[in-house]
Amino acid sequence: MRRFLSASVLALALLASAWSARAQQDGGDPRRGFELARGWCADCHAMEPSDTATHTGPSFQAIADQPAITEPMLRAFLRTPHARMPMDRIPPQETDDIIAYILSLRHK
Predict the structure, then answer these.
(1) Does residue 45 contact residue 57 with C-beta atoms inside 8 Å?
(2) φ and ψ at 63, to 5 degrees?
(3) Residue 106 backbone dihedrals phi, psi, to 5 degrees
(4) pLDDT tens for residues 78-93?
(5) How far is CA 27 from CA 15, 49, 104, in A?
């Protein structure tokens, strides 16, 4: 399992480095991202730091607190099929907004 996770992180890092400067320049709206994530993600992820309910996926706070998490890495992750997460096709602008929300949780 640990080897699979290491390989997954490496693959995501490689995918993230392949994204153009556009990915770093385009920003999303964190407030809109919160609203969108409530529809797309809240069944499995804790949305706010104060959410203490048990979820199957990591909380967005836990994701945001990982030092290695970057906008391109989140973008690659959301576009790459992975275990236990449905492969819903989130439109690009909505993806930008959700990523902006997750990253807005840093240091909270």
Answers:
(1) yes
(2) -65, -50
(3) -55, 140
(4) 887 766 776 667 888 9
(5) 19, 22, 11
Here the tokens at position 94 are 């909505």
Q: Tokens representing 78?
A: 């959301």
Six token digits for residue 38: 């409530």
Helix (H, G, I), strand (E, B) or coil at 1: coil
What is the rounded distance in angstroms from the CA atom of residue 77 to the CA atom of residue 79? 5
pTM of the complete model:
0.69
Domain-by-domain residue ranges, the chain?
Answer: 2-19+28-81+88-104
Packed helices 30-40 and 92-104: angle between N→C axes, nearest 10 degrees: 110
Alpha helices in 19-70 (DSSP H): 21-25, 30-40, 60-64
